[in-house]
Amino acid sequence: MNNLQVMVNDFLKNYSDCQLKELHFYTEFKTNPKKLIHLIAWAKTSDGKTHSHQCRIPKNVKQNLENYLLANYEKLSKMRDFEDLMRGLRGIKGIGTLTCYDVATRLGICFGVTPQKVYLHRGTYKGAKNLLGDTKVRGKSFLNLIDFPKELQCLTPSQIEDFLCIYRNSILNMNFSPKKCTREAATVRKAC
User: Fold this and answer.
1) DSSP E strands: which ranges in the chain?
2) Is 45 helix (H, G, I), strand (E, B) or coil?
3) Distances (CA, A) of 191 to 67, 164, 188
């Protein structure tokens, strides 16, 4: 078993159920859109705390997000494509790509819409870069499942997003291979 498979197994054992449980928390409020929107806009988790991804967003931005979601709930609830759902959230002042993704994921679980691609933002981008190399991720906003090693292809795109974020530094260490010490490498250059 290689290092990547060990990490995937660790993720499945320690994190994937938590992710699903947290997302399903929002489905409890499907029949109460106003409460659902409030929880999502203010990034409240099942334990009543603010999700760490959104803890630095100012209150006025969260209020603007809540107002936007309330005003557009009907339109958003009819979207059946995750990309459309994310696109419907872009342009809200103060809301970046990570929050767009998180809000779309939380709304999407209630609407039966899930990501079909692995969206790259912040920690996920760094994890993908560490795993696949800079040239395969540079300038991209998403990757497809087929772009990832076979060890990750058993996960959903949402799980891969979490995996890349959680293990971004471990992946870097996993891919580190020390260079062999050669006579040329050991040569000391004279000071100029």
Assistant:
1) 118-119, 142-143
2) coil
3) 64, 42, 9
Question: What is Dmax (Cα atoms) for the chain?
Answer: 74
Blockwise average pLDDT, block size 10, the chain, 192 residues: 90 89 94 97 94 92 96 95 92 90 96 96 93 95 96 95 94 61 38 31
8 A C-beta contact, residue 137 and residue 129? yes
Nearest to 86 by CA among 70, 64, 102: 102
The residues near 115 (Cβ < 8 Å, ≥ 6 apart) are 82, 104, 105, 108, 156, 157, 158, 161
C-alpha 146/C-alpha 144 separation (Å) is 5
Distance of CA 120 to the CA centre of its chain: 7
